[in-house]
User: Fold these one by one.
Assistant:
Number 1:
Amino acid sequence: MPRTDGPKLDGRCLALDLGTSSARALVLSEDASPIPGALARHKISPTYAAAGEATLDLHDYIEGLLGCLDELQQNGQLTDITAIVLSSQWHSIIALDNNGAALTPVIPWVDTRSVDLALDPSFDERAFHARTGAWLHRLYWTRRIPWLRSFTSPASYAGLPDLVLERLTGERVTSVSIASGTGTLNLASGAYDDEALAVAGVAAGQLPPIVATGWTGALSSEYARRWPGLVGVPIHPPTGDGAASNVGTGGYDETTAAVTVGTSAAVRVVHPIEGAPELPWELWRYRVDDQRAVTGMAFSAAGNLHAWLTGVLNLDAPEPTDVEIGSSRVIAIPFHAGTRPPDTVPSGSGVYFGLSFDDTAADLLAASLQGASLEIDRGLRMLDELFGRPLEVVLGGGGIDASAWWRRCLTATFDRPTEVCSEPEVGARGAAAVALGLTPQPGGDHLEPVAAEVDRVKALRPRYETLRGLAVQASTETSIG
């Protein structure tokens, strides 16, 4: 997969990565690679409760992130910084009062609480989806805002990256990339969509203003003494983590699909917003920046599934190395955390079929990773069809970096060569690339599918699809009942 070497960073770059399980600050070198020892992490522990509640403490999150900068400062790493970039989780929301103070914790994507919407009979959700890239799903602000209004009286709303940016610069603004993840953006115009605002019951003035990709802010005077090396350094608008991960992996044009595996997983293609192909109902589309969009499919069970299973089974080895790819009799349907829209399978719907007394913990792990791979493959084949050709594939993210078995399994499931991104910090690298116009290369191994593994996966696929259909039906009927 040839790539042309692009421009390098002018000096060092500070990247802030606002994840669901951690907030991190790291320093990148001129080639957008993390500098060894220049990474600080604040662990995030969401609070879970009944009825689908999952929240993040806003104060703890931001103070923990600022503490990461303090740690880098103490280690002498905040020197020669020429740019500050942010990669952030999409879809978060916080309700604010008249003074801009938070009325609620951070509500991240994993929270499943919602309310029904009273829609005009003439509402056309397919046209809405084509225009915004989103559905009327609890993931998005079109459903979140009416739900928040059902138990509080907000004056305005913001996402986590908007409030982090406000804390650093004194300005509450958002990027076109982050705004697209709210489900209220008109993708073509880059402005808030009138119909989406009407559905949510808000005015554009109650949401953060959208700034252009080239906008920069500066560190407020409050922090000048705390981090003197960052005074005057331009702070760029945040990039949604999915878009950042795609670009950071090396998938930044319409020839290439990037498969990233972190807590969740996704398969996506970056392409120009102008002349974009008509969006199928099953896929979402967000913005990368002023010129580019990203189209794809996301999956709620990936690295979290791997971590849960290795813990539950007390596995010493993180990989099922003794299990041949595609050979497990067990079929795992990885709906443990439900499905992303437009499917409506609720959390708690994960299923294992075909268990017998001679199955081992490694068999269960292999079946789970195989099931997640088959789910990702469904999205990849839709993207192949959308862009009119078998796409090249790059693999990236912490889950990819941690498991050689899973890399081989994905390659066999896709039945095509894959390139592996050598850098696990794809979000940070991608945020720098988007903000500064870089074109990173994967830089890792080239994998070819093994014929025997491909054949075994092909043989189990029909059984998987049949059982998957039954699981979807059973989960939907249960949730309705």
Number 2:
Amino acid sequence: MSFSYGGQAVLEGVMMRGPRSRAVAVRTFSGRVHVEVIPGTPWHTRSRLYRWPVVRGIVGFAETLAIGVEALLLSANLSEDPGDHLDKREAVLAVALAMVLVIGLFILLPTVLVPVIGRAFGMAPHLVEGGLRVLILTGYLAAISRMREVRRVLEYHGAEHQVIHAWEHGRPLEVAEVRQFALLHPRCGTSFLVMVALLSVLLFSFFGWPSLWQRILLRLSLLPVVAGLSYEVIRWAGRSRSPWVQALVWPGLQLQKLTTRPPDDGQVQVAVTALQAVIPQR
């Protein structure tokens, strides 16, 4: 099976993951493009257990967090003024605080608000919880997308998607070719978050509606399982052109309109450079 290339936008650049390495390409403070290549195979290739369905999604989620911290730290130190460097401790703390915010806003807050909203509208609690989760996620993304610094990251996010599309369609990795492709991609992390919100409604419904603290513990304990299942759906969607599968990922694609922006030629070139750095030379 061919390797599914992918990555993420970072500060003034793009990180790409390949079968033997990952690379962070950044437009530095001086204006040049710097590429850092880190050797290493994906975690799921290191054990047969890690390749099991659902388990590979949990492992992949943990790997994404780990290398995401590394890529963000590297990009911050390359793109900013040399006097403003971050150390690893500061980067880990920032990501840890972000994870607490994400879990609090998108996992715990909806289930806390359900009794109030559910009584007001007379709807099933699990549907109310899922709806709140999607609304909070959408509102949060809409709010931060208006920030100038975030908008730059969203432009690199769009460039990353366009480059991956070009590679998957067998097109030359040249700026003019890459810019013809869509900003949206079914394997995007944004689609993953939406799938987590949707599948959590189905999975949590099997456990009834216990007390608040039991619900909170249940949601936290099942979060890795929901992440693993969501990974399988997104992975399937990236390889299938079935109308049913495309309908399933449609909400995530629509939300990507908030998390991507059209890049300029320079940003596309940075993304191209990152992908070229991880494609094995034959």
